[in-house]
Amino acid sequence: RRVHGGRFSWNMWKSYSLMFIIGTAGAVQIPVVGWALFKSMEQVGPLFVFVILQFLAFCEYQIERQRLIGDDARAYRMNLFLKCCAALVIVVAILFPMGWFGPLTYRIRSLFFRHTRTGNALVDSVAEHQPASADAYWQHLSYCCYLAPIGFILCLGGGDATDGQLFLVLYGMVSYYFAQKMNRLIILMGPIASALSGIALASLLQWGLAQLMLTMNWATGVDDASSKKFVAEFFQESTDAVAVEDSDSQKPAASAATSTTATTSKKTGSSKTKANVKPPSTGSLPLSEILRNWKAACVHQFMVVYEMPVARVVRTLLAVLVFVWFVVYGAQFYADSRTFAERISHPQLMFKARLNDGTEAIIDDYLDSYLWLKKSTPQDSRVLSWWDYGYQISGIGNRTTLADGNTWNLEHIALVGRILASPQPKAHELAKHLADYVLVWAGGGGDDLAKSPHIARISSSVFDGICGKDDPLCRNFGFYTDPNTNQHNPTPSMQKSLLYNLIQNGRHPLAKVDSTRFREVYQSKYGLVRIYQVLNVDLESKRWAADPANWVCDAPGSWYCVGQYPPAVGKPPETHKLKDYEKHGY
């Protein structure tokens, strides 16, 4: 807006420059951030804006110093802009081959893909990475789904929008785009939907109150022009916005329309002469002037109809409906918001359910299992589980977990998946160097068996030998329906996997845990969680991993340590294979 409109603001330059300099100076002190602000393609946007503002500030300083105006000022800006662009292209051309700029991550690239799958098995496995549905918008935004578009249109301002209004428009467009791409980003719509809905609601209430005040004054015989003036001043509007034709009982006056044709009024007070407004002659006027004249003519004709007695009655009824709607739906919106807030604020580890005998019970299996880890295992215990539960294990159980919700390390999570998807002997060879316990969700529905296709795909995208070259999407790692018994049986690869045997041990005749490698030590009350101890743990690998000298920290005693695997495990591949879902008809 500032660049296009040529209205540079020194206050904006000062505020943004201070924010960028102070924020960047603080951010580079954090080891995990470092100089990524100047290298990552995802984070150079603020730097680009900062450079643009410095360019504009320099231009404005030189223009004021040299007292350039009009075409001379524009020519100076364009000349300097082209020189800066040439210099920037040269700098980028030098740094890019040197690997200075890192590529966009798959999460960011997925926001611009035409479909929802990126080929990265880990990114595609997360449900929140899918596009938002219409139900999701209504669930999170409620009646703001109707009000926000109205506020969006009002912010456009018919070409006279302020900087603040344009900010809301751009904010709304950007947040809606990203919410369409990723369900979890619908949270970005919350602030802007509230702001736009507030604008729409305020405008509706303002209009409705104005109509009621005008109608009351008109009905009681109060001078209509004075009431209109009062309403205009009350809402800080121009009196032209409410200027209309006089009532039937008043003497008509000459119209102030843009038409060059004069309109005369009859001297009798029994009737009113309407202004004969014709579209202005175009002649040789420029297009912008022609459109402006046509707009004035159309607005005048609209106002003539808008102020007819019948229209006044309709406007009054609509105003009443607006206030009734505000009271009724406002109360419902408040109640729905409270209900939704309570629902999402409840702990997800405990829930109410109805048992087979019909009684209601509080299911707290997950919480109890994490508390069991905290009370019944040594403090230096390491727990292997799928990454979904990592934060819960470390936060509630206070035990080290192999993977958590920090899903940036695809190769490490693939290693966890490799252990769970491998046969028990192979899984134990890896697990004994990394973990003391294995925790699985085993209660059906969203348990680890339901996630097993993603576990297999993620591990096979990094390691070979999980699903085979002929099955890149791991279709054979799952279940099939026996036509004779109509039962769901595991495929051969699933039946051999550690994951299947840990979950179905004692529940299905095909499942059996190797008691020489894993021993069950805990099963929750309703069987939703099972915990197994890893037998014959390699103590040398455990001591090696616990040694701070092997943590690979950015500085001695630092909290930022990338870590490394024990020598017996080795280092996983640093690259991974993309999954071509479309090619294989998924």
How would you describe the overall organization of this protein?
This protein has 22 helices and nine strands. The protein is α/β, with parallel strands linked by helices and 586 residues long. Strands 4-3-5-9-8 form a five-stranded mixed sheet, with helices on both faces. A two-stranded antiparallel sheet has the order 1-2. β1 and β2 (360-363) form a beta hairpin. The chain starts with a helix and ends in a 40-residue tail after the last helix.
Task: Please state the structural category.
Answer: alpha/beta
Number of helices: 22
Strand coverage percent: 5-15%
List how many beta strands DSSP finds: 9
Largest sheet geometry: 5 strands, mixed
Q: Kindly, what is the distance between the CA atoms of the first and last residues, rounded to a whole number of angstroms?
A: 44 Å
Summarize the structure.
The chain is built from 22 helices and nine strands. The protein is an alpha/beta fold.
Keywords:
two-stranded antiparallel sheet; extended; 586 residues; 5-stranded mixed sheet; 9 strands
Element layout with pairings:
Elements: H1 2-5, H2 10-27, H3 36-39, H4 45-66, H5 70-95, H6 106-110, H7 121-125, H8 134-141, H9 144-156, H10 163-181, H11 189-219, H12 224-234, H13 287-306, H14 309-345, E1 351-354, E2 360-363, H15 365-376, E3 382-384, H16 390-395, E4 400-401, H17 410-421, H18 424-434, E5 437-441, H19 452-460, E6 479-481, E7 488-490, H20 492-496, H21 498-504, E8 518-523, E9 529-534, H22 539-546
Parallel strand pairs: 3-4, 3-5
Antiparallel strand pairs: 1-2, 5-9, 6-7, 8-9
